[in-house]
Amino acid sequence: MNTTKAILITLVLAATTSCGRGQNAPxxxxxxxxxxxxxxxxxxxxxxxxxxxxxxxxxxxxGIDDPVQxxxxxxxxxxxxxxxxxxxxxxxxxxxxxxxxxxVENLNAYITKFHVVAHYSCRxxxxxxxxxxxxxxxxxxxxxxxxxxxxxxxxxVEEHWRAADYGxxxxxxxxxxxxxxxxxxxxxxxxxxxxxxHFDTADYRSGSYCR
Length: 211
Ligand SMILES: [Zn+2]
Description:
By secondary structure, the protein is of the alpha+beta class.
């Protein structure tokens, strides 16, 4: 076994055993994910695996200081690896362990993958002209459109939010992020969030904003 392969396997094992649930079930990284050999624990948390990337600067209003690109959070793979700040990565980790995984226990499964559809982007809120700058433009936000479970089930926000089979689980999963993140927006919020959940770590003096 060459060194690169050994490192890769070690990292995958680290990622798949860091979650407290279902440790007997083998979890593998799909071949669609190309895991870089310099994947390390980041943000001072052994359960967040990714890479540190150079500061992002886009003009005067967009960018991230000390950004990271996250591949695994407590053993859950992120389908497209978000570029976010550590504050947001840590919030994601807290939510996985304390909110997201407990929310699917009734299905006798655990989450293996988040379907990430947006993260860093230099744009206004909901890409509306003249709107305030988005938390996505600061590395504070992540959009998740669905989840893959350990038994292969795919739960999709747009398809299942109001569905009889997974709707309740999905809404419980969403609600569990309120308070962990400063803002949570889902399909009940507005027309811009029918197919995903938006989570960000913006600070609101009046407390969390969850719709
Ligand atoms: Zn968003």
